[in-house]
């Protein structure tokens, strides 16, 4: 294993997480942890979006520099008080929880090293059982592209007709770390997994703390079930093995009748475990779970885009917690943050693009603040014309 590269990428991720801490603290200033676990997805987004747009004209060092400068400027603007700077004073505008940042990096590191260890047993890009040729081909093509979109490596002379945001992000990380694509593939794969796990940890911890549950317990609970646990079929098979013989057989026959497993498969021990068969439980469907994708090892959009779906959920949570009096902040979240995350998701993983808008819709619809107060000049009118019945009030929320 290339241990030096693993350390180099861990250092890079630590720097990106540190740069994103002010951005995350601006997003969730009053939450437990100040959103520290969302710092890495936030900084990756701010780094990549400017590089993507500059890359339409010139992709390479100029695009990378644009992304780095945008991240540094955004972090500085988020961290420091602008009014104080104008007066010649340096004052922090956000309260960064250093302990929570340490928790976030520890969770990320554990998840990152876990996937690095898994991929070390099977690091190759091969054609069977996935789409690794597509993913690695996009990486190689982006490395030598002069502009975006990159050329379709399976259809020379034509631009690629595919969502390549995760591969673009991986390319930028490989340039920042000075890593060849053949190594960047697995290191970025592990990084996206770590970013998803720590984002789940942070968001659940913030929600749990608001409900009286210790932040770390809620966060670790979510990190385990999002990042490590699969569907219930594997756990259920071990439960069956603990039952008495007659009851075990009857239960196994019932399970086999509803799934694609044979009775002998259901009653088999741990040595028969296959992550592939665990993702094909319901006949005629695919029941993939997050860890399945990373065990399979594709650097694919539905995996690399997951941290940014969690970031979108965090924006919804931030909106939900913002009181109606603070209209400026709520408008910034809905009309500022949501369009950026949603439009990037369209490039990163188009299938998940509607999910960002759906999460925003749910947040606006169910938040205590009236949705019509988002629009300038409509808030007071909405209060005067507020429906008197509960049904009319809910209908007005949906319509707004």
UniProtKB/TrEMBL annotation:
Domain of life: Archaea
Lineage per the UniProt record: Archaea, Methanobacteriati, Methanobacteriota, Stenosarchaea group, Halobacteria
Protein name in UniProt: Uncharacterized protein
Keywords: Membrane, Transmembrane, Transmembrane helix
Transmembrane segments: 6-28, 35-53, 59-80, 100-121, 183-205, 217-240, 299-320, 332-347, 359-381
Annotated organism of origin: Halopelagius longus
NCBIfam families linked to this entry: Chlor_Arch_YYY
InterPro entries in the cross-refs: DUF2298 (IPR018746)
């Amino acid at each position: 294993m290339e241990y030096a590269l693993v350390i180099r990428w861990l250092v890079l991720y630590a720097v990106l997480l540190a740069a994103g801490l002010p951005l995350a603290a601006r997003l969730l200033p009053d939450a437990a942890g100040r959103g520290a676990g969302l710092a890495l997805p936030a900084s990756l987004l701010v780094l990549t979006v400017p590089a993507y747009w500059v890359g339409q004209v010139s992709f390479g060092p100029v695009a990378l520099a644009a992304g780095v400068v945008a991240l540094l400027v955004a972090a500085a603007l988020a961290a420091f008080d602008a009014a104080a700077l104008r007066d010649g004073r340096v004052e922090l505008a956000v309260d960064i929880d250093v302990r929570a940042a340490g928790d976030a990096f520890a969770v990320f590191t554990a998840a990152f090293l876990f996937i690095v260890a898994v991929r070390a047993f099977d690091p190759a890009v091969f054609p069977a059982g996935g789409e690794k040729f597509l993913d690695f081909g996009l990486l190689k093509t982006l490395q030598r592209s002069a502009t975006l979109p990159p050329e379709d490596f399976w259809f020379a002379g034509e631009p690629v007709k595919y969502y390549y945001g995760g591969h673009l992000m991986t390319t930028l990380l490989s340039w920042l770390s000075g890593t060849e694509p053949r190594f960047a593939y697995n290191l970025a794969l592990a990084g996206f997994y770590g970013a998803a796990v720590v984002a789940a940890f942070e968001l659940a911890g913030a929600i749990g703390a608001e409900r009286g549950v210790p932040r770390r317990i809620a966060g670790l609970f979510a990190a385990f079930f999002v990042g490590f646990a699969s569907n219930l079929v594997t756990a259920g098979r071990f439960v069956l093995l603990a039952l008495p013989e007659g009851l075990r057989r009857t239960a196994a026959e019932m399970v086999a009748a509803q799934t694609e497993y044979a009775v002998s498969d259901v009653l088999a021990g741990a040595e028969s475990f296959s992550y592939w068969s665990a993702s094909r439980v319901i006949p005629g469907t695919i029941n993939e779970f997050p860890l399945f994708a990373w065990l399979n090892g594709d650097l694919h959009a539905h995996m690399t885009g997951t941290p940014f779906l969690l970031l979108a959920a965090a924006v919804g949570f931030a909106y939900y917690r913002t009181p109606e009096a603070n209209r400026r902040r709520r408008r910034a979240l809905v009309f500022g943050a949501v369009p950026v995350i949603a439009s990037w998701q369209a490039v990163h993983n188009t299938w998940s693009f509607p999910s960002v808008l759906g999460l925003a819709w749910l947040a606006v619809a169910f938040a205590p603040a009236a949705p019509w107060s988002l629009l300038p000049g409509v808030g007071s009118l909405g209060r005067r014309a507020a429906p008197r019945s509960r049904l009319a009030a809910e209908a007005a929320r949906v319509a707004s």
